[in-house]
Amino acid sequence: MRTRLHCCAMSCNALSIKEKEHPVCTLDVNLKVKGEMRLALCLVGKIMKKKLVNRDVFMEVMNKIWRVYGGVEIEPVEGNIFAFYFSNLDDMQRILKGGPWAFVQAIIVFDKPAGASEINDLKFMYVDFWVQIHNIPLICMTKEIWMFLGGMIGKVHDIDLGTTADGSGSFLRVRVTMETKQSLQHYLRVDLLGFEKITTMLL
Fold it and tell me: Could you tell me the fold of the domain covering 26-121?
């Protein structure tokens, strides 16, 4: 994909001065508005897998999994990159908040196109995760400390304000944004009292 886009960019740069002086047309305002409205309900997703996936199977599976009330139009773009056009903002936000999503054991990373940006301008750098933090001492049972702990993992977007219990004890849930190149942590190490006594919390 990168090679093809790079060749396209080189071709544009290679235009002669005379070719670059051709008349420039301005898009009709009504057409621009329609394009912006469609773009506002668009997500571009990349399946983080080197091997090309079966496009038809992917589109069929995602439509079944998401069950978007207003429907979603999925269009292949390039390689493992797809454009998702929703009919309303609620559906699009629900899919974003319901992630992360995966296909054939590979995560799908979304980016939001804007303006006249091109596909090669999208970086697919960030993904949101719900993370469980286990082994939390009682001194940490405040929202502010939860925000601090979540901030050690990534940018905090949401917190499950009630700790949850399972067979291994209580744990906290935080939703954080992480870089796709960032390795997933397995624990946090915190000096809670400033006495160099380290508390380890499992993720």
Answer: Alpha-Beta Plaits (3.30.70)
